[in-house]
Amino acid sequence: MNKRVDLEQSAFWMPFTANRQFKKTPRLLARAEGMYYWTEDGRQLLDGQAGLWCVNAGHCRPKIVEAVRRQVGEMDFAPTFNMGHPIAFEFAERLAAVAPAGFSRVFFTNSGSESADTALKIALAYHRARGEGQRFRLIGRERGYHGVNFGGMAVGGIPSNRKVFGPGVAGVDHIRHTHDPARSAFSRGQPVHGADFAEELERLCAFHDPSTIAAVIVEPVAGSAGVLVPPKGYLERLREICTKHGILLIFDEVITGFGRLGQPFASHRFGVMPDLFTVAKGMTNGTVPMGAVFARDSVYEAFMQGPDGIELFHGYTYSGHPLGCAAGIATLETYEEEGLLTRGASLEKHFEDCLHALKGTRHVIDLRNIGLMGAVELEPRPSRPGARAYEAFLKCFEAGVLVRWTGDTLAFSPPLIVEKPQIERIFDTLRGAIAALA
Ligand SMILES: Cc1ncc(COP(=O)(O)O)c(C=O)c1O
Questions:
Q1: Rounded to the nearest whole angstrom, what is the distance from the C-alpha of residue 424 to the centroid of ligand 1?
Q2: Facing residues of 378 across strands?
Q3: What is the helix (H) or strand (E) element at residue 193, kind and residue range?
Q4: How far is the CA of 27 from the centre of ligand 1 (A)?
């Protein structure tokens, strides 16, 4: 079969992809194991992006594969609306056990996008349950990414993800992003400058009246917009302002959760506790689509008042899906057995050194990192922004390394089982790729 001809006519409308370009010159993955993919034509690829920021324990881990296999044969699906199955309760308990203290409630979704929208709805309903229904505003941040559903899109701050989709959700505003190359380019870990960007939130509070604001949502480290690490003191200040005004703080931990920053969650890493936080991706090691919202006990308790009845009119057919729960429990066990939720801490310095060794390389205008997340930003070609990073991505692919490219930034987030020589190979390959660029 001539795949190329077939693909050009393919029914698959690919997400976040230049369909015509891709279908002319496809890159097809056929198999995966550990740190590697294999392409359809049998080439091995070192996975520098954990699939899509999700395969934290590496690919096709036997325990996870076996758990899913067993579960699908035992009970393929069961509803969680006014019914239950033990594995969903068990998974929620296990998740609460790895969460920061005080987050003992877990609402299941199926993706990061659904988690973002669920968290926003919980925030609105929480205030309403407490007699503060006037709090309807939601504050996001420029360059934030909270998925593609209407709520997450509204609070998100990546212009191309928003601009053609109409006016969206009412009552949304944004604080500015924290990217500040003039003061902070080539920072190792958290930039020293920029805590002051949090004062933007005070400005919006004054502008809108803080008693109308329900929630502020941020990624602790902005991932999709190119690994923007929070300046020292910034998240702490956001927390202070939210507490002062009775606003809920939501962390979107869809990327940072489950060990990416060398701690189980970003709130552990930064010592700043939100009121709600969202997860997905690494929750099941990417094996089965699943997400969740963690709620502080006090948020949950606010709903458990008044007469008996459904406390939150929200949920998905597949909330707590048995396959997701089976995959998730096996994933948590794999993380625990191999110490993966904190392994990143022991590799962070090496990862950082390898990344920052690219300083001085032609076209490189910034390097950013924290935990096992890193970004290399290239100077855009004057007439064609994004082209240089795309070409670097292609050259890495040809050289057997899979990296993620977004705009003129290349992003790195290897599975947390990565070994030091593999980290070196990722960045050496990138150096070669950049050197060959016009
Ligand atoms: C921080 C963040 N939130 C939400 C999402 C959306 O997740 P999903 O694609 O599973 O809907 C992503 C995806 O990359 C993400 O990085």
A1: 28
A2: 364
A3: none
A4: 23
Task: Give the pLDDT band (50/70/90) at residue 435.
Answer: very high
For residue 36, how far is its CA from the centre of ligand 1 (angstroms)?
A: 23
Q: Does the Cβ of 147 fall within 6 Å of ligand 1?
A: yes
- Could you give phi then psi for residue 195, rounded to 5 degrees? -55, -30
CA–CA separation, 417 and 32 (whole Å): 14
Give residue 54's pLDDT: 98
- Mean pLDDT computed over 416-420: 98
Supply 298's token pair: 């006090």
What are 353-406's pLDDT values in tens digits? 999 999 999 999 999 999 999 999 999 999 899 999 999 999 999 999 999 999
> Mean per-residue pLDDT for 125-130?
98
Ligand 1 atom nearest 256 alpha carbon:
1
How far away, in angstroms, is 283 Cα from ligand 1 center?
A: 12
Residue type, 128: R
Ligand 1 pocket check for 267: Cβ under 6 Å? no
Over the stretch 134-144, which tens digit does the pLDDT of each residue have?
A: 999 999 999 99
Cα 307 to ligand 1 centre (Å)? 36
Rg (CA), the chain: 22
- The overall average pLDDT reported for the chain is 97
Select from 391, 394, 397 the least CA-distant residue to 378.
391
Is 260 a pocket residue for ligand 1 (Cβ < 6 Å)? no
pLDDT for the residue numbered 254: 98
Q: Which residues pair with 45 in a beta bridge?
A: 37
Quote the pTM value: 0.98
Tell me phi and psi for residue 105, to 5 degrees.
Answer: -125, 135
Centroid of ligand 1 to alpha carbon of 147 (angstroms):
5
Task: Write down the pLDDT at residue 6.
Answer: 81
Q: Which of these, 225, 274, 267, 291, lies nearest to 54 by C-alpha position?
A: 291
355 lines ligand 1 (CB under 6 A): no
Q: What digits encode the pLDDT tens for the residues 306-353?
A: 899 999 999 999 999 999 999 999 999 999 999 999 999 999 999 999
Answer yes or no: is the C-beta of 50 below 6 A from any ligand 1 atom.
Answer: no
Sign of the CA dihedral with 117 first, then 303, 258, and 31 last: negative
How far is 137 from 40, CA to CA, in rounded Å? 48
Q: Of ligand 1's atoms, which has the minimum distance to the CA of residue 115?
A: 4
The confidence score (pLDDT) of residue 3 equals 52
